[in-house]
Amino acid sequence: MLTKIELFSEESADKAAEILKNGGIVAIPTETVYGLAANALDENAVKSIFTAKGRPQDNPLIVHISNFEMIKPLVTAVPTLAESLAERFWPGPLTMIFDKTDVIPDVTSGGLGTVAVRMPASEAARAVIEKSGFPLAAPSANLSGKPSPTTAGHVFEDMNGKIPLIIDGGECAVGVESTVICFDGNKIRILRPGGITAEMLSEFAEVEIDKAAETAPNPDERVISPGMKYTHYSPKANVFVVSKRADEFRKFRESRKSENAWFLSCGDYGSGFVNFGETAEIQAQRLFKLLRTADENSVETVYVESPDKSGVGLAVYNRLIRAAGFKVVDE
Ligand code: TXA
Ligand code: MG
Fold first, then answer.
1. Whole-number pLDDT of residue 214
2. Residues near ion ligand 2 (Cβ under 5 Å)
3. What is the pTM of this model?
4. What residues flank ligand 1, with Cβ below 6 Å?
5. Checking DSSP bridges between strand 35-39 and strand 26-28, what pairing results, if any?
């Protein structure tokens, strides 16, 4: 199959909607990462997403809507708290979990009785949903296990020959996937940290962060968000999080500089370092791209100065520690 990349326009969005209406899959930009989209209500269309990504069947997909009315047939009820959060954070990088109705096929929900719903902010994503007329199931458009794509070029690397069309909306503004939350009585539980932070959510209710956000999953424990139990975001390079800051990180590089390695620093440390970014927002935008670029440069090892975990930093740390397979240098 020939894979075309077309800049986002009314025409390319129409083309994408046509493919989706015929049960096909297309890649679309969102403000977080690129998504691989199919009609969320069409079992066979959703199955082709799993095939293209090589994704485990029990890992459920996020269902994307373009206006609030679209959620109603999908879920049994929208709690008042969820309504307030939607009013404040939708459209945007927040995914909420609800009890699902039978309209959502089992393949979409990974066999769970719940469904994850998000209203993306990206104009291109919204146009394609609007023109299709149905909600779109869309996981990140990378091969399962690889770093998520933040440009159309990244999607092409992973999906060339597997899908007919990639809509190019430029670089993703957030750069890491949406915050996934569920409701635990009146509490908000963060299953996957993202652009909408714990600090932002705590204005609305008590917030609990799932252990899986920072630590390795325990194979004996049930994981609420199945996606958090898999190895993820891994480049070919061997990634390590280094728990040393500033001068200590500089010294660390001195001792390893003969290696074929990149040293990602949380700021401009001059020659010998690759600037990961001064703020968590910038680090989020750069993380996946840097991991892919390390591979393009045949870098063997990537050492990353451990970033701050506050705000969006928790999302950055969550992706990084998974890319590192939970390997931390702290000697
Ligand atoms: O920003 C995003 O969320 C991107 C863009 C394309 O919208 N999508 C994305 O999808 O990251 P994906 O499939 O790569 O990640 C979905 C995450 C997984 O960790 C999955 O386990 C979790 O959401 N999830 C989906 N449905 C769930 C459910 N019913 N209960 C618990 N976790 C769920
Ligand atoms: Mg993903």
1. 76
2. 140
3. 0.96
4. 30, 32-33, 35, 59-62, 93, 95, 97, 109, 112, 114-116, 118, 120, 138-140, 177-178, 180, 191-192, 224-228
5. antiparallel
